[in-house]
Amino acid sequence: SAFSTSSSAYAPYNVKNITVFGSGLMGAGIVQVAAQNAFNVTMVDLNPEALKKGQDIIASSLKRVAKKQFPEDAAQQKAFIDKTMAQIKTSTDSEASSKDADLIIEAIVENLKTKQQLFAMLDKVAPEHTLFCSNTSSLPIGEIAKATKRTDRFGGLHFFNPVPQMKLVEVIRTDETSQDSFDSLMDVCTRMKKTPVSCKDTPGFIVNRLLVPYMMESLRIVERGEATPQDVDVAMKLGAGFPMGPFELADFVGLDTMKFIVDGWRKEGKIDDNLVAPVKLLDELVAQGNFGRKSGQGFYPYNGVGGKK
Ligand code: 3HC
């Protein structure tokens, strides 16, 4: 490709403008971190209500960050928040929003067809040099990239919840991702003050490949009557140093999301069936609408703002 002439490790694109599709928890978090680090960011969603929710997520998270960075200095806190907000534009116009993007990051619904449709459209309207990325946690990057003619300029940038706090980004390269594209993505992560790790396009990449089977086995421990969720959580926090136990984490990630991931992997058939064997307890909670923190009830009850009761 015209874009892989350089073999130097230096990132060739010098990404300045980032457009993020999706203003949910992940999209808003990515927008915030990019804006905090001087990228020009456009946040895109289908309607103004969704954008407003995204802005609210950013505003409340920025307040926490500002308080931490400038303790007891309200003026500096405000200056930091204003400066960051000024880096962010919002739009419901997908086409116009991609016109000056150097990098597009997609964080919309976890649905392969929907993602493919978005990228097929963007491939036609975005500039030639624009890099495309998905923040998917469970779908194959290569399958999404197939919807475009720029598979060499396509990769994965997988952030973790809560994005402003979690240091890691998994940078996923497919067999077709060019070295230049990959270098640019690593460079963007560093400039966002994140620590990138490189991973091939495999189910769950690194973190979820390990975390999801571990969470499923935690559910099986409870289902077999060997321990309570509370005791498993205490055990993993105090015995393994995890910040949250597996049941707290499941509630945090969303039980519906967990089920979606394991069901998808089982169908895909690329990882050992035993690791993702269905667990009745999970299926039942999801069928009842108990998704965890976001619905007010999962393994634990939550109050309106998502704190534990
Ligand atoms: N914005 C900015 N900062 C935030 C934040 C937010 N939304 N949420 C938390 N923080 C910061 C706080 O300001 C605080 O900062 P400090 O320690 O520097 O003062 C720090 O995070 C800790 O917050 P709290 O004291 O309020 O609460 P906890 O100590 O319980 O930490 C947690 C909360 C950071 C969520 C921690 O419990 C944790 O790390 N949990 C594990 C999270 C995890 O594993 N995430 C990955 C999930 S898997 C995933 O995302 C993949 C998906 O694809 C399935």
From TrEMBL:
It is found in: Mitochondrion matrix. Residues 17-202 form the 3-hydroxyacyl-CoA dehydrogenase NAD binding domain. Its main location: mitochondrion. It catalyses: a (3S)-3-hydroxyacyl-CoA + NAD(+) = a 3-oxoacyl-CoA + NADH + H(+). It holds the Pfam family 3HCDH_N. Pathway: Lipid metabolism; fatty acid beta-oxidation. Residues 204-302 form the 3-hydroxyacyl-CoA dehydrogenase C-terminal domain. Its EC number is 1.1.1.35. It comes from the Eukaryota. InterPro entries: 3-OHacyl-CoA_DH, 3-OHacyl-CoA_DH_CS, 3-OHacyl-CoA_DH_NAD-bd, 3HC_DH_C, 6-PGluconate_DH-like_C_sf, 6PGD_dom2, Mito_3-hydroxyacyl-CoA_DH, NAD(P)-bd_dom_sf. Keywords: Fatty acid metabolism, Lipid metabolism, Mitochondrion, NAD, Oxidoreductase. The keyword NAD applies. Belongs to the 3-hydroxyacyl-CoA dehydrogenase family. PANTHER family: HYDROXYACYL-COENZYME A DEHYDROGENASE, MITOCHONDRIAL, PTHR43561. This is 3-hydroxyacyl-CoA dehydrogenase. The lineage of its organism: Eukaryota, Fungi, Fungi incertae sedis, Mucoromycota, Mortierellomycotina.
